[in-house]
Amino acid sequence: MKKTGTLYLIPTVLADNTQDQVISPQVKETVQQMTYFIVENLRTARRYVKSICPELVIEQLKFVQIDKDATAAQVQASLKPLLEQGMDAGVISEAGCPGVADPGAEVVKHAHQKSIKVVPFAGPSAILLSLMASGFNGQQFCFHGYLPIDKRDRLQALRQLEKEMQQRNQTQIFMETPYRNNKLLDDLLATLHPDTKLCIAANITSPEHEFIQTKSISQWRGKLPDIHKQPTVFLIYR
């Protein structure tokens, strides 16, 4: 009976040039033995593999891109080398842990359907690291991904998140496209109750630029950081 390959979930860095601090030797040792990768972005994945395993010849490795627009057929095709050739594969996200707020989840779903063994490696998760550093409820929390782009819909979503936070005693976690961060901050201050607490967690794990602070909405007024184009996680709690 032909042996099926294993699907490894390879964590990546959140901040540039931090691989020596946040990526474990186990991840590097596994990547060293691989020749096949299923990735969200070809360019950044190649650069990342080279950064943690400089001895590898990138041209000798195979990278297949599975992003948010990939079809089910493309996802299934990406797993064929594991099923037909017994190759191991590594799933690499744009940042952090693959499968969490990430199209790699589709690859993992199909892998389970095909009885392919899935092995996750520990790595930096902006969602969990921001929750850890917020001082908010870590027993009950919900991640909502990106909020609506339309201003009216976004304000309504914020009011709903605040309502759920109060009713469920639940930390609410969300993100925004980095170039819209400052506009979201303005909406948060204009919409939420003055006593609601907001944690702003930007550039997580960056030695020089990490910014994580929790204050009430009233305390943030007039003292907002400039986080334009900086990767940021937002959390609210009572």
UniProtKB/TrEMBL annotation:
Protein name: SAM-dependent methyltransferase
One BP annotation, GO: methylation
Species of the source: Pontibacter mangrovi
UniProt keyword terms in alphabetical order: Cytoplasm, Methyltransferase, rRNA processing, S-adenosyl-L-methionine, Transferase
Alphabetized Pfam families for the sequence: TP_methylase (PF00590)
PANTHER family: RIBOSOMAL RNA SMALL SUBUNIT METHYLTRANSFERASE I (PTHR46111), SAM-DEPENDENT METHYLTRANSFERASE (PTHR46111:SF2)
Domain Tetrapyrrole methylase residues, every copy: 24-214
One annotated GO molecular function: methyltransferase activity
InterPro entries, per database record: 4pyrrol_Mease, 4pyrrol_Methylase_sf, 4pyrrole_Mease_sub1, 4pyrrole_Mease_sub2, rRNA_ssu_MeTfrase_I
